[in-house]
Amino acid sequence: xxxxxxxxxxxxRYSFNEAGxxxxxxxxxxxxxLPGEITSIVGPSGCGKSTLLYLLGLLDRPxxxxxxxxxxxxxxCDDQTRTVLRNHKLGFVFQFHFLIKELSVLDNVALPMRKAxxxxxxxxxxARNVLDKFGLLDKASRFPHKLSGGEQQxxxxxxxxxxxxxxxxxxxxxxxxxxxNSKIVxxxxxxxxxxxxxxxxxxxxxxxxxxxCNRVIRMRDGRIIE
Length: 226
Description:
six-stranded mixed sheet
């Protein structure tokens, strides 16, 4: 049974001006993401991979084109609506985990729910459940600097899914990890996609990791080449 696309991007163009000279970063990029799949984007540095991720994550707007999330035209939404969609439909994982060093693991994971207006009790209960799923419940009271690099990134993924997003956008999530921890992080993302029917979009330079995904999108000079 073929699933309807979770996200559709059509003919995205994006450029910026430097000293009055336009630089075209994305050139008519179109793609679809399906629920339950991990899709990787690969290509040389500067080809537009991260820019595309930021546009799909509603962190910026393209010069032209369309983005549909759950068939909703998100480019026609105002900034407040886009913020709500980011908080409830999207989860972000980056190369650097961006955990708050002054907060415990539990409070770091619970933070998105607290920002969404949930009580501390409700947020901590959900955070404990997610940490347990990732095998990190025994680390709940620790602070980030007491964790290994792989554990910190798994905590960042736990934080990204606390609000039950439909789509996880991951920009070089294993870029600072060794091969063993990279496999663990990929395994966590793969399990999420399969068991939670989440779509995962993964930007990476790691070809072995990319080829483990359901689909590989290759980019060059601002275009998708296959």
